[in-house]
Amino acid sequence: MTFLSLLVFSPLLGIVLLMFVRKTDAKMIQWLGTAATVPPLILALFAFIQSGRGFRLEQLDEARDWVRLTDLPFLTDTAYVIRYELGIDGLSLVFIVLTAVLATLAAVASMLVKTEKKGFFLWLLALEIGMLGVFAAANFVWFFLFLEVTLVAMFFLVGKWGGFERERAAYGYLLYNGLGSALLLVVIAVLIARTGTANFALLHEMLHNPVAQGQWIAPLTEEGRRWLLGGLLLAFAVKLPAVPLHRWLIRVHVEAPPPVVMLHAGVLLKIAAYGMIRFGVGLFPDEFRAFAGAIAVFGVINVLYGALLALRQRELKHVLAYSSVSHMGVVLIGLGALNEAGIQGAVFQSVAHGLISALSFLLVGVLAHRMGTTDINRLGGLAKAMPLFSGYLLTAALALLGLPGMAGFVGEFTSFLGLFQTKPALAAAGALGLIFAAVYSLKAILDITFGRACDRQEAVVGWRDPQVSAASLGELQGGVVDLQAKEAVPAFILVALIVAVGVYPQLLAAPLDAVVETMMNGLGG
Q: Is the pTM of this model over 0.90?
């Protein structure tokens, strides 16, 4: 097994070993499930470090024959041959590292999960395989297969281990994302039927090289290309999500267990951004120009709509859910700018929001475990009872509003800088969302940490989280416990990464330079 295959499929070993562990042995399940996320983390960090030292990532690419769809005499030997292909460049490397880091931290945070832990970790590791595979896939078929693994794993993780409305949230997630996947499958099928290949590099060559276009089995018209790009963008808009296709996201953020939301908000939403950049800008740059204005407009709508609704929420999970809608709008703004600053900003914002949302939902899980509720009206005065927790929560809020020196500032500043260069009036309107972000994030966090202290018994009345054990409720009655080492360590790691990217953005920019330069050449600039 080669490097990339080992990176993607190493969690399978954890799945196999978990099969032989008794479901009542919670400590062993926790230890083994967490340990299974470490090998891909080590391999991802190794690739990242080697890339910084000048190692050529394409040397890690791998390909093997998998299936031949047809064998017609007038076709070439490579037509309609789908191969098992994995590949990596600077763009996919950044997202692979993000996935590996957050998967390990989510596994650590799964200590808060108290019911049927074995099944939970089996699906969590399957979800990690799917996420890593999506970013490592080098052809459309394997990209789609890995994407469907994430869809199935998330459905069970939400539907089985979520809150009281978990089934509604799970089916909503399945319906919307299933429709997005169906539309994506249609686009993939048309591309394969017309070109005879699903390989990203060959598709790029056939779409851009006039000589290679003679290899097409059935050439595409300009209108056909626009329709294919439109289908791709709509499919990923559902998964991002863009307003008005966002309602499923709110339910998932509220009902899914916090470790799962760490991965959903931190990684799965970024698959849509990755797809728009990799396939939209990468494969259809000329056609993408025609959609850039509409993408920027939807980005501004996302930013303002999400921020305004977040202002009205009194439930912390709802605040963070609408905040995700708003921050994904910044990604669309960067892509709509269609320049180097905008594309880099879209990637920066994706990584920054991944880290910040993971930190936020890690703390939300601790809060739900301690207090039995995340209703802001039932919380208050936690700064005195839980000073360490309150400090991390305030740090998350400052990162969320885009404080300079933190990762969120880099993504927002670069994305808006790109849009100000091309559409200054639209960028000015979208910048209002940044002001609203400061209001809703600080208001919610300050109400929780320094607001009126409520009766803890009153908080128990609002208890909704089925993962909160009876022992935790007893702890509530006896006194609130601050962050413990097992919770503070992953929180510290996330804060350190947020600050590292904010202080030294070149950490991300370096692996992206070559990819962004190639895309800008395709765009003619």
A: yes
- Sequence length of the chain is 525
pLDDT at res. 474: 40
Domain that holds residue 415: 284-519
Contact between residue 207 and residue 284 where contact means Cβ atoms under 8 Å apart: yes
* Residue % of the chain over a pLDDT of 70: 90
Q: How many domains does the chain have?
A: 1
**Residue 61 included in any domain:** no
Full 3-state SS string of 258-293 = HHHHHHHHHHHHHHHHHHHHHHHHHHCHHHHHHHHH
Q: Count CB-CB contacts under 10 A for residue 520.
A: 16
How many CA atoms, within 13 angstroms, populate the side-chain half-sphere of residue 461?
8
Residues paired with 67 in a beta bridge:
82
Over the stretch 361-408, which tens digit does the pLDDT of each residue have?
999 999 988 888 889 888 888 888 899 999 999 999 999 999 999 999
Residue 278's CB is within 10 A of a number of other CB atoms, namely 22
CA dihedral 366, 372, 376, 382 (to 10 degrees): -60
User: Do the domain assignments include residue 378?
Assistant: yes
Confidence tier at 475 by pLDDT (50, 70, 90): very low
Question: Residue 86 phi/psi, 5° resolution?
Answer: -125, 145
**Do residues 344 and 362 touch, judged by C-beta distance below 8 A?**
no
The answer to whether residue 137 is domain-embedded is no
